[in-house]
């Protein structure tokens, strides 16, 4: 008998397996329960596949989206609806990175302990509905994106992407229509673009730290030059200029010479260092696209790499972090879109380098762009006109303002829309005016 | 709903809301009480005879089937080099008659007469010679047998079953209240069903308590699980409750009948051979007669009832598969059993019921391990099973599909992951405390009340209650293992373990299949899943768990030692409750 009874303990293997399995289940439930519960088939919180609870407001309490027994509603204002479309996402899940998709568990007020409850979630975003609407209006039908955030707290005030549609109407356009190209993509976080001259900030930072006599160097621009056997064209004839002037007037000839001194490898290294080639996550859950700045082998390619052309691609969100770090003494406060939720900070660059860049970006405005272009704003910025390769250019304008009480960094990118100064700079001005005075 | 309004007025929904948080706690207390009762009580061994060695060294024989030999792992160890490691075994039948079987290459003699294959009877005062050792065999006297009970501990002293039953009643009242408030279709039928279940369990308890029984843990757990199952049924088909509760009553009656039947081991053994034939016959007949339903041939329609014969074959399989010690050491018996098992599993595979085939296979592993103790046999079996699985998978692409979806159900929410993602979503939606009995949506998905019942329980009653259901089955398994040490016959020890391996495998496949931890195979959760055949089979199988419980006054499926009167086994157990019914230590 003892032999048989001892073998009965074999049954404990099944008991152990059951306990192990329950452990796995409870672990997964704790980790993913919110995603499970907010699945559209959960009739407790969805009505015919549409959320029936939850309210999302902007930083001032303006309702951006609300769900109840009577259905789902977006903001009252048409401009706000369109401006916040990509941030929030739509009910059909076309915009995967939208808050409505990523923060479904919060929307249904899911909790590990109580599951779903009769009360929906109510949560506040850091965005400002008015600033966002101003950005959307300033884009004025152009494709592109506007990002504004507080570089001291990380709060994102505005994250607008175009083209879009009125979510209250639903998708009633042909997605293959050229004018709706990429309508389902949040360009601010999910796309990469040729940066053009805004990338000269990266090259400049590398030069400050690696070329000891950079401040003493002068460059002679006659409208073009031969670098590494290849002709480099410039937008103007800048004459003999120093490095500050070179950045301000965005002289390609000067930066081609700086870039060839640095070499493609080093420029790539700095792009990596400043997080421009890595994928980030916004609020730990929203993924962003990684840019790429491959190291050029030849002097000519390195020259174009340093000017922000060659094969350079940059994600607007990553660039926002970068200019935010320049504004904040080298320290990038990680952006957040959830009110009251901090996401930490990252020391992106040397504080001295940040200080030099900051002063140069201020000089850009006083020397080249004109302070009158930004009334009342203590503007620090860099333009970019990125050649796409088909004759069109992306218009960039990136930088920050240091107005007391408004420590805001921004990135404006208007896709195939023309010159940075002509197109992107007025958009930035309009948005920042709304943020500071609105 | 009207009833609740009449009783509580507007406070009904409030009470129901509150009860959602109380219900899981009651469930925890019920399960914890049962587990404590099972584990707290001392499992004193019974003694059925003695061997007196030269120098009056006494070797007690604590089971009905005892191996005597030199090895440490035998029941009666005699440390003498002239003995084989397993020299012989002595076996007592239900009538109190003992038989000696020679096991090894050694020689065993009774009163100088050599024991031949087939055994030799041995009685009180006979001399048993093994190798160079002669021992006097001493049977229990009448007085010893009747006092045996008093020296052993009865369950129920530390944890009173009546209090647990009262809690179970509270649990059922809370379930009913929630059904009435949350389930718009729940009417008088649901109330009556819970009432009848409650009444049935009290009658059961009162009758057995009056006849001196104090061990009720397995039944309490089964009643607990059945209550949860009844709530699932009320959520699914509130209009069909009469059928459900009648099934439950029939299940309990069959359980009682089964318990009474297995009291007499010789009776059990006498019809065991028919169980083999019946199992094969039923499976074969089902394969031929059953129409195809969802790709399987496992349902038979008989006079308005749908029957799943494979469920009943589970009982036959355990019944036939367990064996007494004398049969265990004969290789040909094991080979016959392996062949029988292969036939059963093969027929189930042919029926397309792969979940049940898997349940049988795991049970086969447990039984064959307990019978042979040989890992070689098991490796052989696993090897052939793996081969078999390949054949099955190549023949049945839809089985392969399930494996393909496994672990990736969220990538296939419209097709192969359809059921699992919904089960997981609903389960998470329930949180720890549930949305309330009758307040779920998962139950409306096809097969939710059977294959995804864990999801339904978690959604409506919460994760805590869900875990309690799992813990109940685990507790029954631990109980079967613990009881094994004091088992009388290996038949009951094996049957108990086999039953629990069956239930555990079902639970593992049901819970982890619906939650995408294992491939989704579609088997039932014991006692909880809706379905008559499954419910009846589970209750009947529970008799085997009762059958290995030899605690004093623990189980009416086991005869009390004082009730054996020498030769003929008088089967009369309607005895008086002794005093307060609880046997105190040191009395008598």
The oligomerization state is heterodimer
**How many angstroms separate the termini of chain A?**
88 Å
Strand order of the largest sheet of chain B: 2-1-11-10-7-8
Main β-sheet of chain B, in a few words?
Answer: 6 strands, antiparallel
What helical percentage do the residues of chain B reach? 55-70%
Q: Looking at the structure, what is the overall shape of chain B? A: globular
CATH architecture descriptor text of the largest domain in chain A: 3-Layer(aba) Sandwich
What is the helical fraction of chain A, as a range of percent?
Answer: 25-40%
Largest interface: A-B, 42 and 62 residues
Q: Name the strands of the widest sheet of chain A in spatial order.
A: 8-7-19-18-17
Mean pLDDT of chain B: 85
* Rg of chain A, nearest Å: 25 Å
Number of strands of chain A: 19
**Assigned CATH superfamily of the largest domain in chain A:** DD-peptidase/beta-lactamase superfamily
**Total domain units of chain B:** 2
How is this structure best described in words?
The complex is a heterodimer of chains A (438) and B (588). Chain A is 37% helix and 20% strand. With 438 residues, chain A is an alpha+beta fold. In chain A, a hairpin with a 5-residue loop joins strand 3 and strand 4. Chain B has 588 residues and is an alpha+beta fold. Chain B folds into two domains: 441 residues, no CATH class; 103 residues, Sandwich (Tumour Suppressor Smad4), CATH 2.60.200.20. In chain B, a hairpin with a 3-residue loop joins strand 1 and strand 2. Chain B is globular and about 85 Å long. Chain B starts with a helix and ends in a 41-residue tail after the last helix. The C terminus of chain B is likely disordered. The chains are: A alpha+beta (438), B alpha+beta (588). The interface between A and B is large, with 42 and 62 residues.
């Amino acid at each position: 008998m003892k032999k048989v009874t001892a073998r009965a303990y074999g049954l404990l293997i099944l008991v152990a397996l059951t306990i192990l399995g329950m452990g796995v289940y409870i672990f997964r439930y704790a980790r993913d329960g919110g995603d499970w519960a907010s699945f559209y088939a959960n009739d407790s919180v969805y009505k015919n596949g549409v959320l029936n609870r939850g309210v999302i407001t902007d930083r001032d309490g303006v309702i951006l989206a609300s769900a109840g027994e009577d259905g789902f509603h977006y903001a009252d204002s048409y401009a706000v609806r369109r401006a916040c479309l990509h941030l929030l996402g739509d009910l059909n899940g076309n915009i995967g990175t939208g808050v409505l998709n990523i923060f479904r568990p919060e929307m249904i007020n899911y909790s590990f302990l109580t599951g779903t409850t009769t009360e929906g979630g109510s949560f506040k975003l850091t965005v400002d509905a008015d600033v966002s609407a101003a950005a959307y209006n300033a884009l004025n039908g152009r494709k592109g994106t506007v990002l504004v955030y507080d570089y001291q707290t990380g709060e994102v005030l505005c994250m607008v992407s175009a083209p879009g549609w009125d979510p209250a109407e639903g998708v009633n356009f042909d997605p293959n229509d050229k004018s709706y190209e990429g309508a389902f993509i949040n360009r601010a976080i999910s796309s990469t673009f040729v940066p053009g001259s805004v990338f000269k900030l990266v090259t400049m930072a590398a030069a400050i730290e690696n070329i000891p006599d950079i401040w003493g160097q002068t460059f002679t621009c006659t409208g073009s030059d031969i670098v590494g056997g290849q002709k480099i064209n410039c937008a103007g004839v800048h004459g003999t200029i120093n490095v500050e002037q070179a950045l301000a007037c965005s002289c390609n000839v000067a930066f081609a010479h700086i870039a060839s001194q640095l070499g493609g490898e080093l420029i790539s290294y700095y792009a990596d260092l400043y997080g421009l080639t890595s994928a980030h996550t916004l609020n730990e859950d929203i993924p962003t696209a990684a840019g790429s700045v491959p190291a050029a082998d030849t002097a000519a390619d390195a020259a174009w790499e340093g000017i922000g052309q060659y094969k350079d691609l940059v994600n607007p969100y990553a660039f926002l972090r970068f200019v935010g770090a320049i504004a904040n003494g080298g320290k990038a406060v990680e952006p957040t879109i959830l009110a009251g939720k901090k996401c930490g900070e990252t020391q992106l660059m040397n504080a001295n380098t940040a200080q030099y860049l900051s002063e140069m970006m201020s000089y850009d405005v006083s020397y080249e762009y004109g302070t009158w272009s930004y009334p009342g704003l203590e503007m620090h910025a860099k333009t970019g006109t990125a050649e796409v390769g088909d004759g069109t250019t992306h218009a960039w304008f990136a930088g920050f303002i240091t107005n007391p009480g408004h420590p805001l960094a921004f990135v404006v990118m208007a896709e195939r829309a023309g010159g940075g100064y002509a197109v992107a700079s007025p958009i930035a001005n309009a948005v920042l005016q709304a943020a500071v005075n609105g | 709903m009207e009833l609740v309004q009449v009783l509580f007025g507007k406070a009904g929904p409030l009470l129901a809301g509150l009860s959602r948080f109380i219900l899981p706690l009651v469930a925890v207390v019920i399960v914890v009480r049962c587990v404590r009762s099972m584990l707290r009580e001392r499992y004193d061994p019974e003694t059925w005879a003695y061997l007196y060695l030269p120098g009056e060294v006494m070797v007690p024989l604590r089971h009905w089937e005892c191996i005597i030999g030199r090895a440490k792992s035998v029941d009666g160890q005699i440390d003498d080099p002239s003995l084989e490691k397993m020299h012989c075994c002595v076996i007592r039948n239900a009538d109190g008659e003992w038989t000696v079987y020679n096991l090894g290459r050694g020689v065993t003699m009774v009163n100088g007469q050599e024991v031949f294959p087939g055994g030799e009877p041995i009685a009180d005062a006979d001399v048993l010679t093994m190798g160079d050792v002669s021992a006097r065999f001493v049977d229990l006297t009448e007085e010893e047998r009747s006092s045996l009970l008093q020296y052993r501990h009865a369950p129920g002293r530390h944890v009173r079953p009546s209090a647990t039953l009262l809690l179970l009643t509270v649990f059922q009242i809370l379930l009913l209240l929630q059904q009435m408030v949350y389930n718009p279709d729940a009417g008088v039928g649901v109330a009556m069903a819970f009432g009848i279940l409650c009444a049935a369990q009290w009658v059961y308890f009162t009758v057995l308590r009056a006849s001196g029984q104090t061990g009720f843990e397995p039944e309490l757990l089964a009643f607990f699980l059945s209550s949860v199952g009844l709530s699932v049924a009320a959520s699914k088909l509130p209009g069909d409750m009469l059928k459900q509760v009648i099934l439950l009553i029939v299940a309990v009656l069959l359980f009682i009948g089964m318990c009474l039947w297995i009291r007499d081991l010789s009776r059990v053994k006498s019809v065991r051979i028919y169980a083999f034939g019946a199992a094969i016959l039923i499976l074969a007949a089902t394969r031929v007669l059953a129409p195809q339903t969802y790709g399987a041939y496992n349902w038979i329609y008989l006079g308005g009832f749908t029957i799943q014969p494979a469920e009943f074959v589970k009982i036959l399989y355990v019944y036939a598969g367990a064996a007494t010690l004398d049969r265990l050491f004969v290789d040909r018996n094991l080979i016959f059993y392996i062949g029988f098992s292969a036939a059963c599993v093969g027929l189930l595979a042919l029926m397309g019921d792969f979940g049940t085939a898997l349940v049988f296979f795991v049970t086969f592993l447990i039984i064959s391990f307990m019978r042979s103790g040989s890992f070689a046999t098991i490796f052989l079996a696993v090897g052939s099973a793996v081969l078999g699985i390949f054949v099955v998978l190549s023949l049945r692409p839809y089985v392969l599909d399930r494996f393909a979806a496994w672990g990736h159900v969220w990538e296939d929410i419209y097709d192969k992951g359809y059921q699992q993602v919904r089960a997981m979503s609903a389960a998470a939606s329930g949180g720890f405390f549930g949305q309330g009995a009758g307040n779920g949506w998962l139950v409306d998905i096809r097969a939710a009340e059977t294959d995804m019942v864990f999801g339904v329980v978690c959604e409506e009653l919460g994760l805590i209650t869900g875990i309690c259901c799992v813990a109940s089955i685990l507790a029954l398994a631990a109980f079967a293992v613990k009881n094994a040490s004091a088992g009388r016959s290996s038949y009951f020890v094996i049957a108990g373990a086999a039953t629990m391996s069956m239930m555990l495998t079902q639970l593992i496949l049901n819970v982890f299949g619906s939650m995408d931890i294992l491939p989704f195979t579609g088997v039932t959760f014991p006692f909880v899943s809706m379905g008559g055949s499954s419910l009846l089979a589970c209750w009947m199988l529970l008799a085997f768990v009762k059958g290995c419980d030899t605690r004093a006054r623990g189980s009416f499926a086991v005869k009390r030692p004082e009730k054996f009167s020498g030769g003929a086994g008088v089967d009369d157990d309607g005895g008086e409750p002794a005093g307060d019914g609880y046997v105190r230590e040191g009395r008598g």
